[in-house]
Amino acid sequence: MKAKYSAFSATKEMHGSSNGFSATGFQKKAYILLSFAFLVALAIGSFAIHKIPPVVFLIYLIMSIMTIVIYAMDKYKAVKSQWRIPEATLHICELLCGWPGAMIAQVIIRHKNAKLSFQLVFWLMMIINIGILAFIVFKLPK
What we know:
Layout: H1 7-15, H2 25-48, H3 54-79, H4 87-108, H5 116-138
Helix pairs in contact: 2-3, 2-4, 3-4, 4-5
């Protein structure tokens, strides 16, 4: 007997999740490329053209690595049905310069990449962080 093929199963098959929100292969590569491109641009701005204090690049790098580790810990806890890291903690890490690492973790370990409400706050944290960085780089007196 064949299983029923419904719109729900078709959506799940097409998008890889039951809620229909999941990045395609191209989007996943674009997210990783965006993260690395941002970090490379920050490094160039810090060390080659001296527009950004080098400590800013180091903060982004360290926070990105920490955020990847925190995402991985939360994923591990989710798989083991243990007490989870609060989403607010993940969002604070993103806001505090860890969003490139969060973006990489969402793609590589496939964690927190399908929940629409989480993604909306993630992108908001990223935009706020970039806005603050732009203000620091372009508006503050040298």
